[in-house]
Amino acid sequence: MSLAIGKEGQNARLAARLTGWRIDIKSETQLAEEEAGYQGEEWAEGEWVTNAETGEMEWRPAEGGE
Question: pTM of this prediction?
Answer without folding.
Answer: 0.42
